[in-house]
Design brief:
3 helices; mainly alpha; about 75% helix; about 90 residues
Length: about 90
C-alpha cells in the first residue's frame, strides 16, 4: 500500500474515533428552567457527531483506495511490480 494511502486510511480511522469521542463529550446539554437549570442527555447530538465522523471516515477510506489503485496502475504501466524495483531504479 502506498504511504499516502496508509496516511489517509489512518486519518479515516481517527475521524471515526473523533466523531465518537466528540459525540460522547457533547451529548450533555444544559436546560434552563424558571427556577433551576439541569442537564439532559441528547442522543440526537451524539448521533449527529458520530454519523458525521463515520461518513467523513468512509470518504477518507475511499480516497485511500483511489490513491492505492492509481499507484497500482502507475506501477503496472511503468513495469514496476513492487516497491523494491522502484528503489533499485532510483539507486542506478
Amino acid at each position: 500500500m502506498n504511504d499516502v494511502a496508509k496516511a489517509l486510511y489512518v486519518i479515516g480511522w481517527l475521524t471515526i474515533i473523533g466523531g465518537l469521542v466528540l459525540g460522547f463529550a457533547n451529548r450533555e446539554i444544559e436546560v434552563e428552567g424558571l427556577v433551576y437549570s439541569h442537564t439532559e442527555t441528547s442522543w440526537a447530538i451524539f448521533f449527529i457527531y458520530f454519523v458525521g465522523g463515520i461518513i467523513s471516515g468512509v470518504i477518507m477510506f475511499g480516497f485511500a483506495e483511489i490513491v492505492n489503485l492509481l499507484d497500482k496502475i502507475y506501477r503496472s504501466l511503468n513495469g514496476n511490480s513492487d516497491d523494491t524495483s522502484e528503489a533499485q531504479e532510483e539507486a542506478s
